[in-house]
Write a structure and sequence with these properties.
alpha+beta; 3-stranded antiparallel β-sheet; two-stranded antiparallel sheet; 4 helices; 5 strands; about 30% helix
Length: about 130
């Protein structure tokens, strides 16, 4: 089971270093949830940081690392779960022009959000 963490600053913005240190401390506490890898994503301007501790199950390669950005850079995802119908969704997305680097359900989730929007994508997930 993966470990996820998020940090949102609602007041004065700290610098990137402080955001990174804060989210790094959070995911360090979650090491037991995901021993395979860790990742951090930061949007300093908005005061947002996401962290992930990975327990690799579906895509064991580095292309499945999280936090993961959509190909167009609009969406960023960090989650713990499994999308059971991601292969079917991928088969729908490829003819629409989406190209995938790896075989993770996370990458399919992000492409689906780009294609159909978040709400419509969530309705399609199993």
């Amino acid at each position: 089971m993966c470990g996820i963490a998020g940090l949102v600053e609602t007041g004065a913005r700290r610098g990137r270093g402080e955001l990174e240190a804060g989210i790094a401390d959070m995911i360090a506490a979650l090491r037991h949830r995901g021993p395979d890898a860790e990742g951090i994503w930061i949007d300093e301007a908005r005061g947002v940081a996401l962290g992930h501790r990975r327990l690799a199950i579906v895509d064991l390669s580095p292309t499945g690392l999280q936090p993961m950005e959509s190909a167009d850079g609009r969406f960023v995802c960090v989650y713990n779960g499994e999308i059971f119908n991601f292969r079917e969704l991928r088969a729908e997305l490829e003819p629409l022009g989406h190209r995938f680097r790896g075989s993770s359900d996370t990458e399919v989730l992000l492409a689906a959000c780009v294609q159909w929007g978040v709400e419509a994508t969530v309705r399609r997930l199993i």
